[in-house]
Write a structure and sequence with these properties.
about 350 residues; mainly alpha; Endonuclease III, domain 1; Arc Repressor Mutant, subunit A; 3-stranded antiparallel sheet; two-stranded parallel sheet; 15 helices; globular; disordered N terminus; DNA-binding; DNA repair; iron-sulfur
DNA sequence: CAAACGTGGCC
DNA sequence: TGGCCAAGTTT
C-alpha cells in the first residue's frame, strides 16, 4: 500500500464576501491568521488539515476496497472506463460490465475500431446509455488526437466527450497521480459534514465547495492523489448519505457536523427523479429490445413496449437524435453500425 | 441554472 | 410500498 505521508494543505485567504474556506494556518504560512481569526468570516474551518490527511489516508491504507480499476494493470484506460461507468451507477453493478469491457477493448483504439452500437450493447443495463456513446467517442478522439494514449493533461481530458470537471480530475489524479481537487458526491458529503458542519452538500457544486477542496488539497502531488481516493472512499463506505457509521470514521473526533449534534438537513430535499411513466422509461424499454436483437427490428416490434403512441414515437425519435439508434429503410431500427 | 438522462437495490 | 440514492455530463 501507499505509504506516502500527507503534507500540510495549501492555505488560502478568504473574505467576508466569498464565504470561503477558513483553514487554519500552518506555521509556515505568514498570511493567514489562526483558527480564532475574524469571527465574522463565514464558512467552514478545519483546524488541522495535515492531521485530516494523515488520518483519512491511514484509514484508506487499511480499508480501501480492492477494485479492479485500482490495480496497476488497469492503466489509464481502465481508470477512464471505470469513471464513465461509475457516473451515477453503483460499484456493484459496474464490476461485471467493466471486466467484460476491458477484456474486449483493452485499449482505446480497440473500442474506436468497433461500431458505436456495439458499445451501447456492451453497456447492458448500466443505465444512461449515452455514456457508452460518449466513451466510444472519447476512444476515437484519443486514437486520433493522442496517439491512442489517454491524455495526461487535465484540459485535454476535459475536451473529451463525456468527461466533465469531476472525471477529468479523477482520471488525472487516479491514473497519473496528479494533484487535482476531486469533488464527487462522496467527497462533497464528507466535506459538508466534517468541515462545514451540515448533513448534506448543496444540490449543485458551489464555488465555496471548490475553494474548500482546493484549500484541503495536500501540497505534495502523491499525497494529494492519495487524499482524493481516500476521502472519496470514506464517503462511499463510512460517511454515507443515509446511515453514516461515525463509529468507524477516522475523523469523527474532528467532524463539525457530529460535534454539532448531527443536526438534520434544512431546506428543500433534492428533487426526486421520478421515473415511472417518463420518456426515460420508454427509451429504456425501446433500447432493451434493440440491445437484445441481432437483426434490424421492425417498428411493429418496438410498438409493443409502450401503449401510448405519441410518447412512444417521441422516445424513439429521441434515441435516433441522440445517435443511440439507427433508422433503416422499411421502418426498421438497430443499434448504430457507425 | 434547471431539466433531461436509466436502472436497480435498499430501508 | 415507494422515495431515496448511486464515482455526473450536457444542454
Amino acid at each position: 500500500m501507499n505509504t506516502t505521508n500527507a503534507t500540510n494543505a495549501t492555505v488560502t485567504h478568504s473574505t467576508a464576501e466569498d464565504a470561503g474556506p477558513r483553514v487554519a494556518a500552518s506555521s509556515a504560512d505568514p498570511h493567514v491568521a489562526g483558527p480564532s481569526a475574524d469571527p465574522h468570516v463565514a464558512g467552514p474551518s478545519v483546524a488541522d488539515p495535515a492531521s485530516l490527511h494523515t488520518s483519512v489516508i491511514a484509514w484508506f491504507d487499511r480499508h480501501a476496497r480492492d477494485l479492479p480499476w485500482r490495480r496497476p494493470e488497469a492503466g489509464a484506460w481502465g481508470v477512464m472506463v471505470s469513471e464513465f461507468m461509475l457516473q451515477q451507477t453503483p460499484v456493484a453493478r459496474v464490476l461485471p460490465v467493466y471486466e467484460q469491457w476491458l477484456a474486449r477493448w483493452p485499449r482505446p483504439a480497440d473500442l474506436a475500431a468497433s461500431p458505436s452500437g456495439e458499445a451501447v450493447r456492451a453497456w447492458g443495463r448500466l443505465g444512461y446509455p449515452r455514456r457508452a456513446l460518449r466513451l466510444h467517442g472519447a476512444a476515437q478522439a484519443i486514437t486520433e488526437r493522442h496517439g491512442g494514449d489517454v491524455p495526461r493533461d487535465h484540459a485535454q481530458l476535459l475536451a473529451l466527450p463525456g468527461i466533465g470537471e469531476y472525471t477529468a480530475a479523477a482520471v488525472a489524479s487516479f491514473a497519473y497521480g496528479q494533484r487535482h481537487p476531486v469533488l464527487d458526491t462522496n467527497v462533497r458529503r464528507v466535506f459538508a459534514r466534517a468541515a462545514t458542519g451540515i448533513q448534506y452538500p448543496p444540490n449543485a457544486t458551489t464555488a465555496a465547495e471548490r475553494r474548500l477542496a482546493r484549500a484541503l488539497l495536500p501540497d505534495d502531488e502523491a499525497a494529494a492523489a492519495r487524499w482524493a481516493a481516500a476521502s472519496m472512499e470514506l464517503g462511499a463506505l463510512v460517511c454515507t448519505a443515509k446511515s453514516e457509521d461515525c463509529g468507524r470514521c477516522p475523523i469523527a473526533d474532528r467532524c463539525a457536523w457530529r460535534l454539532a449534534g448531527k443536526p438534520a438537513h434544512e431546506g428543500p430535499a433534492r428533487r426526486g427523479q421520478t421515473y415511472a411513466g417518463t420518456d426515460r422509461q420508454v427509451r429504456g424499454r425501446l433500447l432493451a429490445v434493440l440491445r437484445d436483437a441481432t437483426e434490424p427490428v421492425p417498428r411493429s416490434a418496438l410498438d409493443t413496449v409502450w401503449n401510448e403512441p405519441v410518447q412512444r414515437a417521441r422516445a424513439l425519435d429521441g434515441l435516433v437524435a441522440d445517435g443511440l439508434v439507427e433508422p433503416l429503410d422499411g421502418d426498421r431500427y438497430r443499434l448504430p453500425l457507425t
